[in-house]
Specification:
Radius of gyration: 33 Å
Number of strands: 17
Shape: elongated
Strand order of the largest sheet: 3-2-1-6-5-4
Distance between the termini: 127 Å
Strand content: 15-25%
Number of helices: 15
Structural class: alpha+beta
Length: 569
């Protein structure tokens, strides 16, 4: 064998050895990139899907809580046999029905088992009482178990056989006088939730939501959803374990779910790991959603989402480089592959941590350059969608905050909002010794207005009182609808002369109003003292209001420390 043949064999051996080594290095690098990239995609997908679900659920949950806090519904819940209160409560629930996304509501009473329901088609108008729950009926067990456990709210995917519907139910406890008297809420159409959030037909991506016990609540395969899991024994539930092939994966998933729930942090983060599903390796991204008590799990088939074949052109570049020059192998490999991959990995890390992308990413006309271009476009798309999601979440949060503190009819503060203002003024009183005044007023004979002229006229009367309060108080004072036909006004800063003047101005303004029907108000006033508690101030104002009513109404009384002073009327 001549030298040329030996050299050829040597070079061929070196090329083969280098090719094999290069292939091994290339495969490891690409797998590492795919795993890192997959982890980032899993985290983005998990947060994106979670945000879309929470936007829908938290809005419905907030409205359901407002419905259970309604004074009209709570009054009826205390006296369920009063037909007038029942009619008023049904009208109140019908108003809430128009605001729920699914245009439906339900309310079940504990003592009687009466179950009220109406849907988006208003199918059950004037016959909202659909049936009565029975503690001995298995399909009604959810109601009695929910009351027994005392959960403030609960999400439950359940078919209602009596109504013939399957929905994601938002259940909220109804309390009256510190006693659980029922459950109320709304239902979100299950197919709509699955189509918009879960079953998006993204190749290689499966999204599911499970409850605290791992029971599947939302999944593209409806046969695996664990309907009515709330009342099932643990051994009979369809849990996420059904999707996993190996016991080790099930153990890892269970430990991950428990550790996520135990984290003492508002952001529970996203945990990732590899599991085997239907014989294929998947990357699982998991997070806990404390506001609803569920977990979100995303399963990525990386062979579909990020196939190894996308990197095949790079291997061709490596082989051509080896054939051209073994001496330049290291330089070419580093220049053509390693440096761009490191830059891309660095850019991916910056994308993951929310930092701006570097400006020195390689711009080349080859496959790596196109990969970088695709990455930059994907990064721009992720940033844009993230900003849109953040803006949407911020808007929804602000809207819910306003909705929670404002009375929808009068646009004044509601009781919750006024309680926050009262707490602020009490802290200011204790810190700065700056006194403030309270005016508590009640519309005289308001029930008669509702009975004679109807609730629509009553609503207009409440709006007129709200308008008069806004016109009579100072710009930095605050008025609230305290409940029913009662209103509360904070005057800060305030002294005795200011309290008397504004209170009498409110009374006279309503008495002199030319609008029909004619109305008057009884008003009680109180001035906060430095050693007062909030309960004491409210009690004095309430006593003053009571005294005004006892003495013929259309009166304004101011409470002193030891006496009540009549002003006007």
């Amino acid at each position: 064998m001549n030298l040329k043949s030996r050299f050829f064999l040597l070079v061929s051996g070196l090329i083969i050895a280098a090719s094999l080594a290069t292939w091994a290095v290339f495969q490891r690098i690409t797998e590492d990139i795919i795993e890192r990239w997959g982890a980032n995609i899993a985290e983005i997908q998990v947060r994106y899907d979670s945000s879309r679900l929470l936007q829908n659920i938290e809005r419905e949950l907030g409205l359901a809580r407002q419905m259970t806090d309604s004074e009209i519904i709570q009054r009826w819940a205390r006296y369920p046999d009063d037909p007038l209160l029942e009619r008023a409560a049904i009208e109140e629930m019908e108003r809430f029905r128009q605001n729920f996304a699914g245009r439906n509501y339900f309310l079940a009473l504990r003592d009687s088992g009466a179950y009220y329901y109406n849907n988006a088609d208003n199918e059950f108008a004037d016959r909202q009482l659909r049936y009565n729950l029975n503690p001995d009926t298995p399909t009604d067990a959810w109601f009695y178990q929910l009351i027994a456990e005392g959960r403030e709210f609960h999400l439950n995917v359940n078919p209602d056989e009596s109504l013939g519907v399957t929905k994601l139910w938002v259940d909220v406890l109804l309390r009256a006088n510190d006693r659980i008297v029922g459950v109320a809420g709304t239902g979100i159409d299950l197919d709509q939730v699955l189509q918009k959030i879960v079953d998006l037909e993204q190749p290689g991506i499966n999204t599911l939501f499970v409850d605290a016990n791992g029971a599947i609540q939302l999944y593209r395969d409806r046969r695996l959803i664990d309907y009515a899991s709330f009342v099932k024994p643990e051994g009979q539930k369809k849990t996420v374990d059904l999707l996993l092939d190996r016991p080790a994966d099930r153990a890892w998933l269970g430990n991950t779910l428990r550790s996520l729930k135990q984290l003492d942090s508002p952001d529970h983060g996203v945990h990732t790991g590899f599991v085997q599903v239907d014989g294929r390796r998947h990357l699982a991204g998991i997070t806990y959603l404390p506001s609803i008590g569920w977990y979100e799990i995303t399963l990525l088939d990386l062979d579909v989402v990020l196939p190894m074949g996308n990197f095949a052109p790079l291997l061709l570049v490596f082989a051509l480089t080896l054939l051209l020059s073994l001496a330049a192998f290291h330089v070419a490999l580093r220049r053509q592959v390693i440096d761009p991959v490191v830059a891309l990995e660095s850019a991916m890390e910056r994308l993951r941590t929310g930092q701006p992308l570097p400006r020195n990413l390689p711009e080349r006309p080859d496959e790596m350059g196109r990969l970088v271009t695709h990455f930059e476009r994907m990064a721009d798309s992720i940033h844009r969608h993230t900003r849109e999601l953040e803006d949407t979440v911020s808007e929804r949060t602000e809207a819910l905050h306003r909705l929670a503190r404002k009375d929808a009819l009068t646009e004044l503060f509601n009781r919750r909002g006024m309680n926050e203002l009262l707490d602020e003024e009490m802290h200011r009183l204790q810190r700065e010794n700056r006194t403030f005044g309270l005016i508590w007023l009640d519309i005289d004979n308001f029930k008669g207005v509702n009975d004679r002229l109807g609730h629509a006229t009553g609503d207009r009367v409440l709006q007129r009182v709200a308008a008069c309060l806004n016109a009579s108080i100072r710009p930095y004072d605050h008025a609230a609808r305290w409940g029913g036909d009662e209103f509360l006004v904070i005057l800060a800063p305030c002294d005795s002369e200011c309290l008397q003047g504004i209170g009498e101005r409110i009374r006279q303004s309503l008495e002199a109003s030319p609008e029909a029907p004619a109305i008057t108000v009884s008003i009680g006033g109180a001035l906060a003292q430095s050693d007062d508690t909030l309960e004491a101030i409210l009690l004095r104002a309430d006593d003053a209001l009571y005294q005004a009513k006892e003495n013929g109404r259309n009166q304004f009384y101011v409470a002193q420390q030891e006496a009540l002073v009549r002003v006007g009327g």
